[in-house]
Amino acid sequence: MNIKKAVIPVAGWGTRSLPATKNVPKEMLPIFRKPIVQYIVEEGIDAGLTDVVFVTNQNKTIIEDHFDRNFLLEQLLARAGKADMLEEVRRVANMVNVIAVRQKEQLGLGHAVLTAKEICKNEPFAVMLGDDLMFGRDTGIGELIKAAEATGKAVVGVIEVPEEKVSKYGVIAGEELPDGSYKVTSLVEKPAIEDAPSNLAIIGRYVLLPEIFDILEGQKAGVGGEIQLTDALQGLADQDKLIAVKLGGQRFDAGDWVEYLTANIYFALHDEELRDELIQRLKELLPCSE
User: Fold this and answer.
1) How would you class 62 by CB atoms within 10 Å of its CB: exposed for 0-12, middle for 13-18, buried for 19 or more?
2) CATH code at 61?
């Protein structure tokens, strides 16, 4: 199994992040020194992926432009002698091969993945959602690619979540295997607490087999009136072609304001130039304990 493509759906409106996303795509909001989408692409590159398929809409071309050359900016930086900045903007432009396909109607994550069918054709491929930022060891799409290559099966990334949060996720039921992964038997999208089969929640990292496209083409709308990828994954589970891998590391939900702001602080605290001053300013902002 040779996985080289990542499908990154970016056509959504980012309503959780309004009004910041009224005219700026959610994926282009900055976290520390980079836009959200760049972290996602770099994670894929680190895992050996070479092609990124953005499932986009007519208002999101700025995302593609971010990974293209900007000759006017480069000339300005060259004239100003800002060699480090020039090198960085050129690095971003050259880091990956970008392919864009239009999702003309936002009919759900399953529909977004289906939109990439002609690009991915008969190849296994990764899916990476921009809401989920993942950092550290034993985390991210690289772990799922290893599992897919070892087993020949589709893989979903899962984490354990508190019982009261299961209704926000797709949740799996399955049998734990000797290597710590799970043979997935069923999946439920955003179940009520009492209906959740486990607390293992699917997050925005997948490795899928091309069979998923045939399933999605026959998939009916599910929760929210949308074509849910979670529902289509049941078709792979029924064929014993789906496993789940528990991911570690640090995860941030970039669509949640607390998580988004925490991610900015997380990276700033790892910057030696900013760390001490940031800590001091945070202490000044925090109310004094009595």
Assistant:
1) middle
2) 3.90.550.10
